[in-house]
Amino acid sequence: MNLRKLFFLFWSTAAIGAAVTIVIGTIMQWTDASFGFMGLEAAGFNALMMALVGLMFGVFSQMGFFAYLTLNYIALSVLRKKYLWNALQAYSTIFAVGGLGYILYQNREAFQNNWLFWVLPLALAAASWLVSYLKVKQTNNGAFIPTLFLLYVGTMLEAWPTLSSESNPTAIVFMMIPLFACNAYQIMWLHRLLRKETTETTDSAANAKPAV
């Protein structure tokens, strides 16, 4: 992984965050008159503001992504056995599903609904499972649990500020969907960037002239 690829991953992830945030924010603005900055009459201004917020979501997602890569490296160095680390991640993911549901259930009166506490955890789990399945199809079976852990636990932790009792379902969805999209984009691109780098290194070594 060189600086050029890191630069590409940085700006492309930020762009994904901005695009998804604009789409989600626009849909919410159409369906909820109270959502937005200045109402539908200032749609252009709102789109710009949502794009800036989405850029921050993208950067925040990258911080979480590289924090996980660091954690993964340290955990493998300490535990030595990959299956132990995978088991811990699997257990943590299951615990996080129940934990997210419990947090939302505790705040259901503030959210003024009785469905978010079970719909959101299950929807996030299903989306995480789908992306993890696609990751396995493109790489190997060992990528399933780490991808699932990153997408569910990582997204949940990154969206933690909106899970307090002072938030509302709109704010949770508005933050969680772009963060999930950015995390999914990064994990699906990581093996492609590393594979491309490996291929380039192999080709350079094959074309190198033998030392005399």
Write a structural description.
By secondary structure, the protein is mostly helical. It is built from 7 helices and no strands. The chain has helices at 3-31, 43-79, 82-106, 108-111, 116-138, 144-158, 169-207. Helix 1 (3-31) packs across helix 2 (43-79) and helix 2 (43-79) crosses helix 6 (144-158). The longest helix is centred in the C-terminal third of the chain and has 39 residues, at 169-207. The protein is globular, with a radius of gyration of 20 Å. It starts with a helix and ends in a 5-residue tail after the last helix. Residues 37-42, 201-206 and 208-212 have low confidence and may be disordered. The chain crosses the membrane at residues 7-28, 48-71, 83-103, 115-134, 141-160, 172-190. This is KinB-signaling pathway activation protein. Keywords: Membrane, Transmembrane, Transmembrane helix. It comes from Paenibacillus mendelii. Pfam families: KbaA.
